[in-house]
């Protein structure tokens, strides 16, 4: 049975219990008074690998978790926007960079934390400038050889950047889909705490470059 | 300002207000007593286009919305599973069919209803049988020419099946990514109420067939 994450009913303020509703295989948070079911679903994190003149844009995080470590611009998708629009929004918020999305690049599920990363290839767009947004200490373009892999914030971002550099070097782009299997409770950036499973790596041809 | 969807605080039972927290560009549900922010995020619907001997598996819905109309097996992704595993689970629940997932096929965002469809290509697996699950009135294999496009439950499924048949006929598979722009409040299956926008159609080569 999952732990109680919702103590009171959103609809009537009654107390909540964790039960298996009839016909449902899952445990749900159900209101003892009005029967409202408070579903918890996985959330999407959307972001961009931004390339400019052969370099990749990274942000040094100004907030926890992983303050001081580097990541690509990414964050939770909002209701009312598309995943690509959300990735562009996060890139502007975190790096003050305007970008053009070229294609989806990866879909990584992380079941243990209930997240899916939907990441895009993008290129820096006019006016080709960037600077730190409120959640970043620093924003910089990195040569592939200079990416600080020992200071990357999240397992999903390490995995993305490693595949991106391989694709970039070979000139054969892929659409990556896979599952990041993490040790529950592990630190977000512990390289020994995760592995990539069920990896589909599909060579793609892009019409819009 | 969005309408109030959460009247009471999940954490303390206090009353909720819709405000813009400092540093946030979005309106949020915030507790007047303890400050808890109740975020609403888009949800993922996961499913499979299941092919067997050149035919496609469809389910006639036994539940609303769109009871009596046809769809592919799909449903909300659960925390703790991957999108592909969720698609397999839904296929078993709705069609009692075991499948092998071949690759991701499409990602469709539907911003107006806060959903993203993550759909997979799959083939029927041993024991190659199927029957109606509790949410289906009927399950059947359709020849491409016999798919009942005037009786398909959801815009996302019509769009998926049309692209799938094109790819199947040409032998060139694609990874599709796009945005389904719906008229707010329109019926789920009104063909005049939606259009596909920002469609990236990436030719793919599959190594795992």
From TrEMBL, chains A, B:
<protein>
    <submittedName>
        <fullName>Uncharacterized protein</fullName>
    </submittedName>
</protein>
<dbReference type="GO" id="GO:0016787">
    <property type="term" value="F:hydrolase activity"/>
</dbReference>
<dbReference type="InterPro" id="IPR020084">
    <property type="entry name" value="NUDIX_hydrolase_CS"/>
</dbReference>
<dbReference type="Pfam" id="PF14803">
    <property type="entry name" value="Zn_ribbon_Nudix"/>
</dbReference>
<dbReference type="InterPro" id="IPR000086">
    <property type="entry name" value="NUDIX_hydrolase_dom"/>
</dbReference>
<dbReference type="Pfam" id="PF00293">
    <property type="entry name" value="NUDIX"/>
</dbReference>
<dbReference type="InterPro" id="IPR015797">
    <property type="entry name" value="NUDIX_hydrolase-like_dom_sf"/>
</dbReference>
<dbReference type="InterPro" id="IPR029401">
    <property type="entry name" value="Nudix_N"/>
</dbReference>
């Amino acid at each position: 049975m999952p732990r109680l994450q919702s103590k009171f009913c959103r609809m009537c303020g009654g107390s909540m219990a964790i039960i298996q509703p009839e016909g449902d295989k899952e445990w749900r948070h159900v209101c003892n008074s009005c029967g409202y079911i408070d579903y918890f679903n996985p959330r999407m994190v959307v972001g961009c690998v931004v390339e400019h003149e052969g370099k990749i844009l990274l942000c040094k995080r100004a907030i926890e978790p992983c303050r001081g470590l580097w990541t690509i611009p990414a964050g939770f998708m909002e209701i009312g926007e598309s995943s690509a629009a959300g990735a562009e929004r996060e890139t502007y918020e975190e790096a003050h960079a305007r970008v053009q999305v070229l294609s989806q690049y990866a879909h990584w599920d992380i079941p243990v934390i209930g997240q899916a990363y939907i990441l895009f290839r993008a290129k820096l767009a006019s006016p080709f400038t960037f600077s730190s947004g409120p959640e970043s200490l620093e924003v910089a373009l990195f040569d592939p050889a200079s990416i600080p892999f020992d200071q990357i914030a999240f397992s999903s971002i390490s995995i993305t950047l490693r595949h991106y550099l391989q694709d970039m070097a070979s000139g054969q782009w892929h659409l990556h889909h896979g599952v990041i299997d993490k040790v529950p409770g592990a630190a977000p950036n512990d390289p020994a705490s995760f592995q990539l499973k069920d990896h589909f790596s599909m060579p793609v041809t892009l019409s819009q470059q």
